[in-house]
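Pilot study result, target chain (578 residues):
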Amino acid sequence: MREELRANTNNGSGANFIFRLAKGLSVFNNSQLRNIIIRCSSQSFNNSYTNQDYDDKYYKRAGNAIIGTALVSWIAYKLYENKGHVQVKAATPTATTTTTVTNIGVYNPNLPNYTLEQVSQHASSDKVWVTFKQGVYDITKFVSEHPGGDQIMLAAGSSVEPFWLLYAVHNNPQVLNMLESMRIGNLSAEEAKQATSNMSDPYCNDPRRHAALKPASVKPFNAELPPSLLVESFLTPNELFYVRNHLPVPEVDVSAYELEIEAEGTKKTVILTYEELKKFPKHTVTATIMCAGNRRSEMTKVKTVKGLDWGAAAIGNATWSGARLRDVLRLAGIDEDSKEFNHVQFEGLDMDPTGKPYGASIPFWKAVDKRGDVILAYEMNGQPIPRDHGYPIRAIVPGIVGARNVKWLGKIVVSKEESDSHWQQNDYKGFSPSTDWDTVDFTKSPAIQELPVISAICKPSPGQTVTVVDNHILVQGYAWSGGGQKIVRVDVTIDGGNSWHVATFDHQDETPSPQHWAWTLWSARIPIPKGSKNIEIWAKAVDSSYNTQPESFKNIWNLRGVLSNAYHRVPAELKWKR
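Predicted structure:
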């Protein structure tokens, strides 16, 4: 079994099974059901293991995560069959919201007792048992009905509780009750404890975070600043920079760190240590990184979307220092004029249960362009990159969506094709407003690279009472555009667009486009008509290619809630100074 799991970790088949399962459910009309499956497939875990650390604990945990994900998928399918009686909506992980069902997995005196040894003997396709707390469950039917039963068998005869640590979807009472319907017996309290004795929270080694960060989810940790703090500094302090993690933060021993560079289809492979990377000419660039889902919470007001409920602060600006990627590729023997390659793939050291790392790719031309400023960064604002932001090495790709700025970089592959990772192929893509989870085909949409022009009002905050001084109020915010375009104007209105006021640029990098990677901080002193009590402030930005923001979210709505760059609108109460 160990060898079989090793083979599956190498090709990511466990995760691919879940993706195939979700795709197979595309005939369903229940979008909530599909969201459960897709949310399961898009969240993964890593217990800070490296590729070399394939110990028994990892294999067991990886298998449990596979079976747990698939089990919830099957439960969702059964709920769909009975949708006339119950509807299920997957829970979004939050810092404060959990649902518990106290009788699930509790000792049931009306059922027979089994031992862990007996459970472990039911690990064939004829009989598949698993445990949860003190409950013993027969999921044989699940295995026989699923095309991915061979993957599920990797964890047969063991506990599914490591999965429950990783995903919030199990907090749904209907899901837990459906699991309980497969209950056949009990474990003793002692054996239930033994079944999870080697289990630990995969997030327990995550770094401490600043209290000012507001979590959109805790496990994995994703958080942003209150927008009012975001515009206090042109360079966002490291500890206040928004955090976007897909998996637990790996612990990397820098003395043992190695970066592998491979040219697909050739025998060209180079391995560089941390110290060797630091010997390359040091290049520093000031660049803004923004999550594709920034301002998603506004788009979801039009219609619910899938994703973290980001406000307007999933963005930050910093100076990054490191080796130019083009220099490293040149050392590896990669010809920047080569016609053999179209993409450069990045793989992180954060891995899912199948051993497949977080991955993404960028166009080859961007990687080798001397004006592209792509670096393998080891410093952020003059300090070693913090763990949450990719220590020891992070790919910094200025002007490109944050998802391609891969953290904890472990491998680079120069290739003909894009990365085959879930996050490149089945996430971070835009779609028509008419596309829903019943009709979506991720193969029909390109992966997001350069982001569109965007702006946000950071002061005042929505609903804040603002004091009118000398018949004026002060509005402050940021603006940015992907692809190296410079912000040339920010317009602000308080009367629905009947009149506009041009903002002043308080902080803007002098670098010209198309190498203008940093945001612009702006402010506007807006005259207020006498007697006004309530206003709605709008802001829109224009970049150096004269791209501007769309007026509303209605016509740019998409099911993933990405590319949320409509006019920013902030309501405010007015208080007149006497």
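One observation from the pilot: The longest helix spans residues 56-81. A full batch analysis is planned for the follow-on phase.
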